[in-house]
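Reviewers asked in the last cycle whether our approach scales beyond single polypeptides. To address this, we selected a multi-component target totalling 169 residues and predicted its structure end to end. The input consisted of the following lines:
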Amino acid sequence: MKRVCAWCNKDMGILLAGGQSKNLITHGICEECANNIFTKIGLKSESFLDDLAAPVLVVDETGRTLLANRLARVLLKKNLQDTELYNIGDMFECAHAALPEGCGKTIHCGRCTIRSSVMDTFESGESKLEVKAYLHRGKSDNSEKIDLSVSTEKINGVVLLRIDEIGDK
Ligand SMILES: [Zn+2]
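The resulting structure, written as structure tokens, was:
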């Protein structure tokens, strides 16, 4: 299959049948255009993300959410203003993130697939597709286990975290 960038029409080469593209989340856009959009997180990256047909968070290397697209804000019931500098766990209302130590610093966080998927992608640059994860949502004494699956892609110093499935959605 021949692929062309939807933004600049540059030939993106041939995607072999069954082959996996590095741009799992931003597919249809070449690396140069994607880097250009994410050089500075702002209106341009926001409208690009809103066009994606899935909920996507933009996370920095410390696990904070810089941006959430419209679908993610609706799904997680967070306002854009709220998402600034929120830890991933706070976005998902993870019971462990609500502990005094905070997201990423509790004894539970070493087993967190959401966080480790994001951090692995930061380190390796490799995208991840539909990784199964779970979280305990709510308060630590009254939480509900939620299954989810997420995909990741690194782009110009940030990681995009796509929510493929959450709970029964
Ligand atoms: Zn392009």
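The domain at 41-166 is CATH 3.30.450.20 (Beta-Lactamase). We regard this as preliminary and will revisit it once experimental data from Aim 1 are available.
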